[in-house]
């Protein structure tokens, strides 16, 4: 499976095996705006993934999936940061 993914979808394979990003590291494969992060919802992501597969097959689906994952991760980081800030501010 690893060989199949690395040869057919190298961008996804390299994204999976890259080191974790730090907060200040913006080397993701796509630029993600703050509005992307704020407005991201799983239901909308599913629609975008379906459309990407219909228009470009597995290659476009994989690129879209990678972007969706990056946006979701950033959204979770923002939420956690807010939670930590709220805990620190209420002490």
Q: Could you describe the 3D structure shown?
A:
This protein is mainly alpha-helical and 91 residues long. It has a domain at 34-91. The protein is built from four helices and no strands. The protein has helices at 2-8, 10-16, 34-39, 42-90. Helix 1 crosses helix 2 (10-16). The longest helix is centred in the C-terminal third of the chain and has 49 residues, at 42-90. The radius of gyration is 16 Å and the shape is flat.
List its traits.
0% strand; single chain; mainly alpha
Mean pLDDT: 77
Per DSSP E runs of 2 or more residues, the count of β-strands stands at 0
Query: What best-fitting shape do the alpha-carbon axes yield?
Result: flat
* Helix/strand structural class: mainly alpha
Q: Name the helix and strand elements from N-terminus to C-terminus, one letter apiece.
A: HHHH
Proportion in β-strands: under 5%
Poorly predicted regions are 22-29
User: Taking Cα atoms only, what radius of gyration do you get, to the nearest Å?
Assistant: 16 Å
Alpha-carbon distance between the two ends: 49 Å
* Total DSSP helices: 4
Percent helix, as a range, is over 70%
Largest beta sheet, briefly?
A: none
């Amino acid at each position: 499976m690893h060989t199949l993914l690395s040869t057919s979808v190298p961008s996804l394979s390299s994204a999976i095996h890259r080191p974790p990003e730090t907060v200040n590291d913006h080397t993701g494969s796509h630029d993600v705006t703050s509005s992307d992060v704020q407005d991201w919802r799983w239901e909308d992501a599913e629609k975008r993934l379906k459309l990407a597969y219909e228009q470009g097959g597995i290659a476009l689906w994989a690129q879209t999936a990678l972007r969706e994952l990056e946006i979701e991760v950033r959204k979770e980081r923002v939420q956690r940061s807010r939670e930590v800030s709220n805990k620190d501010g209420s002490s």
